[in-house]
Design a protein that fits this description.
Keywords: Membrane, Transmembrane, Transmembrane helix. By secondary structure, the chain is mainly α. It has one domain. The protein has three helices and no strands. It is rod-shaped. The mean pLDDT is about 75.
């Protein structure tokens, strides 16, 4: 009877341990998936940001010459880029190793801040 109780306790401990390991692996997989999704979103946002900057530079030069349509477009590019920057900064806080994306973002920001 005593040995049966010990066997049951050992089995319960093993089952509990296996469940803990499975829960831990599921948690790790979920975190990896979140990081992958965040990295994909960062890449898309950086691409959109770069596109906006390319168009922004053209509009900026026309706006300097007083083109009214360009002035309107200029302000919309400024707002759109501010939204993208805010979202990127939020995503950068969620990712651990986003140095490549952060460096790419800094280069694009410099291009945006110095359009000439």
């Amino acid at each position: 009877m005593f040995k049966l109780r010990q066997v049951v306790i050992v089995c319960l401990i093993l089952i509990f341990s296996m469940l803990c390991v499975k829960i831990t692996w599921n948690f790790i997989d979920e975190k990896k998936q979140q990081r992958t999704t965040a990295d994909q979103e960062i890449s898309l946002l950086l691409s959109e940001y770069e596109n906006n900057i390319h168009n922004y530079v053209k509009v900026y030069k026309k706006a300097l010459n007083g083109d009214r349509t360009s002035l309107k477009k200029y302000s919309s590019f400024m707002l759109k880029n501010a939204e993208i920057e805010q979202r990127l900064n939020h995503l950068f806080l969620q990712t651990e190793n986003g140095d490549y994306h952060k460096n790419q973002f800094k280069k694009l920001q410099n291009k945006f801040l110095n359009p000439n």
